[in-house]
Amino acid sequence: MGFLLEIIRLGLRNLLLHKLRSTLTSLGIILGVAAVIVVVAVGEGNKITALREVSALGATNIIVRSSKPPEAANSGAARTFFVAYGLLRQDLRRLQAALPDAMAVVPLKAVGSDVSYEDQRISSQVFGTTPALLDVARLHLEPRSRYLSAEDLISRAPVCVIGSEISKQFFRFRDPIGATIKVDGTVFRVVGVLEPVGLAGGRGSALVGRDLNKDIHIPITTAESQFGDMVMRRTSGSFSGEQVELSELYVVAPETDDVVPIAERVRRVIESGHVALTDVQIVVPWELLENAKRQMMVWNIMLVVVAGISLLVGGIGIMNIMLASVTERTREIGIRRALGATRRDIVLQFLVETGALSMIGGMLGILLGVGISWGLQPLVGALVRLPFLAGAFEGRLTLEPSVTTWSIVVSFVVAAGVGLVFGIYPAIIASRKDPIEALRHD
Predict the structure, then answer these.
(1) 8 A C-beta contact, residue 195 and residue 142
(2) What is the three-class DSSP state of 204?
(3) 273 lies in which domain range?
(4) pLDDT by residue (tens digit) across 333-390?
(5) Sign of torsion, CA 432 352 310 294?
(6) Do 318 and 417 sit in the same domain of this protein?
(7) Whole-model pTM?
(8) Per the domain annotation, does 435 fall within a domain?
């Protein structure tokens, strides 16, 4: 035991005698370990963000959405045109009859978009819906708010629940509850405000097709009686009309295991009334969630492989330095062999030095990688707020790295292993030197 400690002491003392060289030698390991931790943290953070945003749509939800067919979109060049497309109330009834095991089938009907309060006016999206949407879409209300009720549907009440962005723009310094806003000239009383939805500007927003924080919800019966199904638009030199009975349907499966089978039944029911689904789009968040997991796994593997090359380069650097050290210390090796040191002793001494370089480099790399990962989010946030970069990014740019324990453990173990593996060859070369020839070396 004492002999082994002496070998370790000699190896570490030699490293301390050449501090700069030891630091530069371990630099490849330090950067390699840091690179592995940072790229895994960024990849893991992106995965968590993507999964959170897709999950926010509801893992058991199936969204059926009206979509303007290509031929209707291309007809905008005509001076006057009319098009009817999308989901029908008949589709709602057929889905309710065909899916008795579904927890709910909730309709949404898009109506006005010109929303005003006093002298303020913005473009938003107003939806007629039912009280079930609150739970189905996983929405939450701010204090003192209420959502649409069954009584609102029966009485066709002119009430609305507004999104957080609408509340922020119209009622920054006042209580919105009880205030009245206008939707295409029709007056509605605000009874509730939705809490901010994290999908705004993220992947979930792209899947939904809009910023949910700018939505306004009214009773679907009120939407049908006040606005009807026809939307007329007049612009300079043209006149257009669109008829859409329902904009979206939320179908809720009992469990995640039932999502895919129910989604297939939904497709069959919808396809029977909409050939090739040219005017209807079906979004299944659970399928998107599983696809996102697979894509992120592949992406993480690729990132780790790329970062692992840095560790390989660091190991090669250690081997090169140790080979040069063998030549430089040939006379020292000869003296130790002449005094009775065995080949095994020489191998151990060089392995102690390479192992120490690798492990110390690995620990410094861990500190550097974790520090960079933790600092990326505030750094990116500060950069995008700079005046010359503020307009360079569309929407919201955030980076939320998540440091994982396995990346720290694996990178350290690999770093130590790489150092030892690449240190074996120089150690063997040193142990095979003839003592007499080594003593003659200048």
Answers:
(1) yes
(2) helix
(3) 68-111+228-278
(4) 677 677 777 777 777 777 777 777 788 888 888 999 899 888 887 777 676 666 655 5
(5) positive
(6) yes
(7) 0.62
(8) yes
Answer yes or no: do 33 and 95 share one domain: no
Comparing CA positions, the residue from 224, 211, 270 lying closest to residue 395 is 211
Asked whether residue 425 falls in the same domain as residue 310, the answer is yes
Domain assignment present for 127: yes
d(CA 154, CA 274): 31
Beta strands in 113-162 (DSSP E): 114-117, 120-123, 125-129, 159-162
pLDDT score for 203 = 47
Within this chain, do residues 107 and 127 fall inside the same structural domain, yes or no?
Answer: no
Q: What is the strand order of the sheet 230-235 is part of? A: 80-84, 238-243, 230-235
- Is residue 401 within 8 A of residue 47, CB to CB? The reply is no
- 3 state DSSP class of 87: strand
Per-residue pLDDT reduced to its tens digit, 149-162: 999 999 999 999 99
Could you tell me if residue 347 is inside a domain?
yes
End residue of a domain, out of 173, 193, 218:
218
Backbone phi and psi for residue 144, each to the nearest 5 degrees, phi listed first? 70, 5
Q: How far out from the chain centre does Cα 198 lie?
A: 12
How many domains would you assign to the chain? 3
Spatial neighbors of 404 by CB under 8 A, at least 6 apart, are: 40, 41, 44
Provide the 8-state DSSP code for 213.
Answer: G
Mark which of 218, 246, 268 sits at the end of a domain: 218
Q: Looking at this protein, which amino acid is placed at residue 307?
A: A
Instruction: Please tell me the distance from the alpha carbon of residue 374 to that of residue 352, in angstroms, as a whole number.
Output: 33
Residue 399 has pLDDT above 80, yes or no: no
Task: Please indicate, yes or no, whether residues 121 and 106 belong to a single structural domain of this protein.
Answer: no
Q: Helices 259-271 & 285-328, crossing angle to 10 degrees? A: 130
| pLDDT in the model for residue 36 | 82
Structure letter (DSSP) for residue 142: P
User: Pairing mode, if any, of strands 114-117 and 120-123?
Assistant: antiparallel
373 lies in the same domain as 411 = yes
Please report whether residue 285 resides in a domain. Answer: no
Rounded CA gap, 156 and 152, in Å? 6
Asked if 229 and 244 touch (Cβ cutoff 8 Å), the reply is: yes
Q: Are 381 and 365 members of one domain?
A: yes
Looking at the fold, whether 242 and 344 belong to one and the same domain comes out as no
